[in-house]
Amino acid sequence: MASKEAEVITDIAAMRNWSRSSKYQQQSPTPKTLALVPTMGFLHAGHLSLVRRARSLADLVAVSIYVNPGQFSPTEDLSTYPSDLAGDLRKLADAGGVDAVFCPRNLYDYVGGGKVRRGDDGGEERGAVSCVEGEHETWIRVEGLEKGLCGRSRPVFFRGVATVVAKLFNIVEPDFALFGKKDYQQWRVICRMVRDLNFSVEIIGSEIVREVDGLAMSSRNVHLSPEEREKALSINKSLSKAKFAAENGQETCQRMKLLIIQSITEAGGRIDYAEIVEQETLKPVEVITSPVVICVAAWFGNVRLIDNMEINI
Amino acid sequence: MASKEAEVITDIAAMRNWSRSSKYQQQSPTPKTLALVPTMGFLHAGHLSLVRRARSLADLVAVSIYVNPGQFSPTEDLSTYPSDLAGDLRKLADAGGVDAVFCPRNLYDYVGGGKVRRGDDGGEERGAVSCVEGEHETWIRVEGLEKGLCGRSRPVFFRGVATVVAKLFNIVEPDFALFGKKDYQQWRVICRMVRDLNFSVEIIGSEIVREVDGLAMSSRNVHLSPEEREKALSINKSLSKAKFAAENGQETCQRMKLLIIQSITEAGGRIDYAEIVEQETLKPVEVITSPVVICVAAWFGNVRLIDNMEINI
């Protein structure tokens, strides 16, 4: 397939206009379908697998590249989140091309004065806060699914994700949207939001793409030192062992979680959580009698990594 | 204009399909525009004025009729909220007709088991609760505007309104949506939600329609006894007096609010609130130096009424 030049769009109205005029064309009897791959950029093979999947599903493919301040708290790594727009555009072209790339400047700036705070400057009057400052005050809460796992240590994360994805859906108006299952809870939150708010978007969850040594692909991996990267393999290794054990009759979650925690800690990681939960509700289980997912978050140096494995028994 | 038979639609997919196929027609070079008038039914002249305004704005008009359990708490009047679908359809036809009427059965039932609780049955584990039971867990919060005025005594009201309006927007896909300014805070909440979530819907706020004696039209007026109805005129009278005073140099809000409270209380009403606030932010003001709105909520018997008047000085 010949690579093609994507239309790079930064303006919200231009993006919606592109979507509508591309989908509804005079000469075509039925509207074309559009798939959106929402990303925060610094693309890797995981993103590109989503793009390929998108092309197989829909007539048109758009990729959004936007580091969303709404999902970072002021103490998190918004300021160091990696970015490389030129590189991203090249990777997309090399991977066969997409039809449009949406790179908005600031999705929370309504009056020309919307600021983004990139670090913790202390005083803050409101309750849970993100890096969005200014007039924005509408947040989508998926009240059950947002609470556990990553929600415990990142209280503004899922409201920020749900809100920006709703904004992107309303701007891009896709028929499909693709999310990597590496961010398992995020995928479930979005599925629930789409159902509960009747968005006419079909959500596709795509399998985790790993490096050859098993590390789950993540834009944050670039911040790992070679030593940290080596230690971080303990996540995938311990998840694989636990999955093998579960598939061979080990049913007691407490023991499996302890083994994961022990193995990551011994490798030099700092555990945020290791949980075994139901796949749809993300409710913790004690004994595995139906499909579950093992979810892990752990720090290596200053880098927080997440990973998971589904167990379908 | 000849009245026409509206298409009455109860199914979500059928509603979206009607909207898309009506807007995008092969023979038409540009899509038709669609205006939505969201209502809870039991239509009165206020609703019909929104319908007329909608017809002047758009090629197609849809009215939704749905008593939204998401905006009622279990202690409120969901079970006694008046309804008369046959009468509503007749009124719409008599008023010149609309293109579609959307009357969904239960917008929160995703798995066939979604229940609605119509009264307070005591035990409730969650925090702020509405009359929605079951699997729904996504709520839109307009965190600033939802708090004051009606938000104080009705803590789940605006999240319920914002959420159901988002659902209706995603199902009906209108270009315009019309709201009465009688529900002033609701109108402002919806405007803010639309801006913050990038809905491509233009929101129109329409002036309050009053009975000849000045009472603001409301579906709940039907529950007033003749005596209560007479007493309720004190709302409009005291608002008019306060507006007159403000327009003639009275700037001190404290005194104006006291006069309103006194006048309604003396008439036999029970004040929920009387506030003078900025028109866009709904923040209370002490002295009137820019456009404000006086907002009142008061009980007459078991009926809670709201009303307001803008002062544009």
TrEMBL record, chains A, B:
UniProt keyword Lipid metabolism, yes or no: no
Name by which UniProt lists this protein: Pantoate--beta-alanine ligase
GO BP terms: pantothenate biosynthetic process
Subunit structure, as described in the record: Homodimer.
Entry annotated with the keyword Membrane: no
TM spans (from-to): none
Primary localisation category: cytoplasm
GO molecular function, one term: ATP binding
Pathway entry: Cofactor biosynthesis; (R)-pantothenate biosynthesis; (R)-pantothenate from (R)-pantoate and beta-alanine: step 1/1
Enzyme nomenclature, EC number: 6.3.2.1
Leading EC class: ligase
UniProtKB keywords: ATP-binding, Cytoplasm, Ligase, Nucleotide-binding, Pantothenate biosynthesis
